[in-house]
Amino acid sequence: MNDYLVYFKFYFDEHEHKRLQYSNRGYMWSYGHILVFISISTVGAALEVMNDKIGGHAEVSLHVVNAMVVVPTAIFMVSMWLLNDLFSKRSFEANLLYPAAAMLVLTTPFFEYGTFAVGLLLLLTLAIRLKMDTASSPTEYVTNL
Length: 145
Known about the structure:
- This protein is mostly helical.
- It is 73% helix and 0% strand.
- It is built from 7 helices and no strands.
- The radius of gyration is 16 Å and the shape is globular.
- Keywords: Membrane, Transmembrane, Transmembrane helix.
């Protein structure tokens, strides 16, 4: 669910659509969403495996199930960074928020409650990003890439 919240924050962002209207990055942006949707659906499938594990129907270790959730979540975060932040004129901290959060997410499969930690990290990342976006003026983007 958190993946969808982060995705729709970008999808309905008016500045994103204006930037793509005058840019040649439209194809990269549109086809890059294939990776976004694949990672979101993979997280859904991994959560179903997690449900089977908790119910006692799956004979997979908890660390493997956590990794099944964590890896596509990290791919989702990096793909959102590549699609939306890499070529923006945001601050250095804002541009590194998603890669840093993805690195933190990749450390969570080693904990017993790794999936819960991933959810908390996604919510924290979204809160920080929204705070950064509201604290700054509308973002100027590079339009001639």
